[in-house]
Design brief:
Blueprint (H helix, E strand, L loop, with lengths): L2 H17 L31 H11 L6 H11 L6 H11 L1 H13 L1 H7 L3 E4 L2 E4 L6 H22 L16 H11 L14 E5 L14 E5 H7 L13
């Protein structure tokens, strides 16, 4: 009959139609939903959902501890069904409000301020604008290429240290451990800020970039401002030694 006796057709037919709400809609084997036990031995490529099944998964069967699952599905839908990991990471970054706010502050504090002083940029009411006359396509391409070259040269000389290592944690602290450290320290171990005053983060005392682990003894609570200032430059334990 083919394909594992047509998914054990003779044995499961009555059961499938009586108990499986997807039985009449499945286009895979004519009998059952892709999650039917009879499919457990089939290659994953044969178990693709149809649109109705995906809608049902999102509406009724998705269990969430964060926004990541629906965000990933939405990103793939917007991209026509497939995307590289880098493309997905860029889309996720757009939804990270904490990081967006961090870079808003960082842009305003340094490059925006410096470029305004040099007369390169105008800034008013939250809008930055190049303070140059209208550029032709060729001129714009030349300036853009020069910027790309500057970025490339800088990254070549500095590597990953260009970026905040707290954003490049390849072995992040899990939710349960993060809760334990926040409960233990409660406030920023450097400035004393509470969660009502600043966003609190779990910092690696010995940075991950220098071999630090996720052992609780290597973790401490810092507010976002102190953590950004510390970055991966030192391994100072800022906790109260009396504790």
């Amino acid at each position: 009959m083919g394909v594992y006796t047509r998914c054990e057709r003779l044995y499961t037919k009555l059961k499938a139609f009586a108990a499986d709400p997807y039985a009449q809609n499945s286009a895979r084997c004519g009998i059952c939903h892709p999650t039917h036990p009879a499919h457990s031995r089939l290659p994953r490529n044969d178990l693709r959902m149809n649109s109705a099944e995906l809608q049902d998964f999102v509406d009724n069967r998705m269990r969430m501890s964060h926004i990541y699952q629906p965000l990933l599905i939405r990103c793939l839908l917007d991209a026509g069904g497939q995307a590289t990991l880098r493309q997905l990471a860029l889309e996720f970054a757009k939804e990270d409000e904490a990081q967006l706010r961090y870079y808003e502050k960082r842009i305003k504090a340094m490059p925006l301020r410096v470029l305004r002083q040099h007369g390169v940029i105008d800034y008013k009411d939250g809008v930055a604008k190049l303070a140059v006359t209208k550029t032709a396509f060729k001129e714009k391409a030349g300036i853009r290429a020069a910027c790309e070259q500057k970025i490339g040269e800088f990254l070549s000389s500095r590597g990953l240290s260009t970026w905040d290592y707290s954003l490049l944690n390849f072995d992040p602290v899990g939710d349960s451990l993060r809760y334990q450290i926040l409960k233990r320290d409660r406030v920023c171990q450097l400035c004393g800020a509470t969660r009502e005053q600043e966003r609190l983060e779990v910092d690696h005392i010995v940075p991950r970039s220098k071999g630090g682990t996720n052992d609780p003894d290597n973790l401490q609570v810092l507010c976002i401002r102190c953590n950004r200032g510390k970055s991966n430059r030192d391994s100072m334990d800022l906790r109260d030694p009396r504790e």
